[in-house]
Request: fold
Amino acid sequence: MDDNERTQLIAGLLATQARVAPTYFYDLAGSRLFEVITLLDEYYPTVTETRILERHAPDIATAFADAVGDCALLVEPGAGNCEKVRQLLPGLRPAHYLALDVSVDFVEQALQSLRRAFPAIAMSVVAADITQTQPWPLPDSRGGRLFFYPGSSIGNFTPDQARALVARMHAACQGRGGLLIGVDLVKDHSVLHAAYNDALGVTAAFNLNLLRHLNRLIGSDFRLQQWEHHAFYDETASRIEMHLRAREPLQVQWRSPAGSGLPERRAFEAGETIHTENSYKYTADAFAALLRDAGFARVRRWTDERDYFGVFLATTE
Ligand code: AVI
Reply:
């Protein structure tokens, strides 16, 4: 991590409401813990989205072809293990599948088996975090472009940030393309609460692991037993908030970048929290409106029987 990132991270810890960006969940242990979260009974989003894609991939491909034509370039930001895109490739048949991810080696491994299954599709991976990288490293393409952004990752941005990100994808379609995006929907609060407070405590471990990650990154001395997982649904903001809450009065120290002038410690009172994540939930109509506000002309959507999760196809025409 560079001094600028370190400075931002420490400034967040020093803020009145301390905060750490959710990107810091994902060290190796955090990524593994997230994979386990997706297997939990309570965490319905992953399995529900997968079912929607399995069931409706042919309709999605037809809807894209009807609105846009051939898919020259399929772009998946944060592609990870490239599992979800498998459902789309047979119907969509893009000329080129481009995975964007910070972990190039991990994606490259996933691409090996995908290439064997779909030899006619060119596949590549480029190191990029679309929230940081400017401009996006996209190749020239003749024909329609489709962005694929599953997993309700969009829910971890504020609605304003989400709209701005979708608007960038719209602009990157260059007048001919679309966005296929998965979004977690508003539902019974008890279902939402359970998804972020699972009985096995995996989400708690995922949240607490962030402190271990910080200890390595900034030389802090967080002691995990002094903290507890706290996640709740805020109905007004329509989001799950995740926090780490101090169990007792405590002090934390770290190393600030030389010459930054930033304090190297902070005291927390019992009950004070570090805000680690927001996970916004949308109604289907509100998310369709966001897609249109970001510039897309047409929106189609598919959901599951319980209306827990939405997969939206927004197109330029
Ligand atoms: C990655 N993201 C969409 C997950 C979510 O549900 O907001 C991260 C997560 N946090 C706790 N559980 C899962």
